[in-house]
């Protein structure tokens, strides 16, 4: 058994039942740098990604250029957009971009559909599909019902005393425009909660940010 097969089975235990087919595909694993677009919105689905290393950011864009992060994929997880595309034979509804150097296997659509005949693999994919749907439901609630200042405060927390992030990157995560994020960050700075530097944000009063984030 090759190292790639062993890695894939370690991250995706449901693949144990697919030994020979998996061994034939494993040598086709790809290694791509950070910033690689794996697929665009409205592309046909070229395959089902299984990650061995790295991270992929999946997002949707609006007509005015704004981007909303839907979720991220790491080894052991599945891509909801790719699954939905393959289940329904329709174009992809999101874009995928690697955030770190990434190694992955792209399972061809006919092979993926054949694997679904295996109960263990099918249950695994459908189980993670349901988890992703729950995450997206929570994201919709967050975007639709929570004020931007609270969402921004929450996004700044949990990363230590200093974040290496641009205003545009924060705007992309929150699904808004950079100008709105910049305006709120300057407000937070005036309150003494943060200190702004070039592509960095220092947290000076995490308790105040947490109170805002948790406000009803």
In brief, what are we looking at here?
45% of the residues lie in helices and 21% in strands. With 216 residues, the chain is α+β, with helices and mostly antiparallel strands.
Kindly describe this structure.
The chain is an alpha+beta fold and 216 residues long. The protein has helices spanning 3-11, 19-25, 80-88, 109-115, 119-145, 148-156, 167-174, 178-191, 206-213; strands spanning 30-32, 37-39, 48-53, 56-61, 67-73, 95-98, 102-107, 162-163, 194-197, 200-203. It has 2 domains: 3-144, Sandwich (Jelly Rolls), CATH 2.60.120; 146-213, Arc Repressor Mutant, subunit A, CATH 1.10.10. Helices cover 45% and strands 21% of the residues. α6 (148-156) packs across α9 (206-213). The longest helix has 27 residues, at 119-145. The protein is elongated and about 60 Å long. The model has no long low-confidence stretch (mean pLDDT 88).
Characteristics:
alpha+beta, Jelly Rolls, Arc Repressor Mutant, subunit A, 2 domains, 3-stranded antiparallel beta sheet, 9 helices, elongated
Please, what is the average pLDDT? 88
Q: Which structural class fits the helix and strand makeup?
A: alpha+beta
Indicate the overall shape: elongated
Count of spatially separate domains: 2
Task: Indicate the radius of gyration in whole angstroms.
Answer: 20 Å
Low-confidence parts: none
N-to-C series of helices and strands = HHEEEEEHEEHHHEHHEEH
Second rung of CATH, namely the architecture of the largest domain: Sandwich
Q: How many helices?
A: 9
CATH topology of the largest domain: Jelly Rolls
- CATH level 4 superfamily of the largest domain: Jelly Rolls
User: Largest sheet, order of strands side by side?
Assistant: 2-6-4-5
Distance between the termini: 54 Å
The share of residues in extended strands comes to 15-25%
Q: Biggest β-sheet, characterized?
A: 4 strands, antiparallel
